[in-house]
Amino acid sequence: MEEKKDRIPAHVAIIMDGNGRWAKKRGLPRSMGHVQGARVVEKILKDASDMGIRYFTVYAFSTENWSRPASEVAALMNLLLTYMKTSIPNCMKNNVRVRIIGDKSKLSPEMNRAIRELEDTTAGNTGILFQIAVNYGGRDEIVRSVRRLAQQVKDGTVAPEDIDDSMIEAGLDTSGVPDPDLLIRTCGEERISNFLLWQGAYTELYFTDVAWPDFTKEELQKAVDAYGGRIRRYGGLKQ
Ligand code: IPE
Ligand code: IPE
Ligand code: MG
Q: Annotated active-site positions, please?
């Protein structure tokens, strides 16, 4: 069944890439690119919400990003901690619900406390769901889900032949959220870099040369328009 999607995608995911290159071009330290990138996320979240997008997922820190220089990892973790600690009033004002995806067990206790407070405080909001991927890897997420199922098999509560897509999905960090309709990657690279591997099985991909710190509502609109013009066979919300 072919379906022309000239509508707004329900779920948009973004690989926010190019902060480092943006900074380098201006003779600034990479960390300044991340600072500017963090400002842009907040703006684009509001734009996405205003456009009628219902789920918005951003890749903030991958399982592979720990291998960057310690000072850059620290700068990124600091920015994330600041966001978790200071964004509650804004999220309440804009009716945003926040959820962190990724393996939180490797994040600091302070970060975990801030995440819990942000998630709990915004849990009742009914506007856009903002998912932030921190220490996230698609393979790692699938491994954690499979490990949970293996334990259930071992305990005798699940039979191997009963395992299906929905049981693997139920153990993912994104469980309950529809798969992304549109995935945008900025700054010219055209790869998935371990983002939403399971959920992205039928996601439309959109690449732009614009670096993340230069990304605007107009760029988001271009991606949404490109999506609207494509024919999709599977995926998307039943509307
Ligand atoms: C994306 O920008 C942000 C993170 C990965 C945290 P990069 O830091 O990857 O920027 P480039 O790719 O080096 O330009
Ligand atoms: C992907 O970007 C991760 C995030 C945006 C957080 P990277 O810049 O880390 O990915 P690679 O290394 O180019 O694949
Ligand atoms: Mg990069």
A: 17, 65
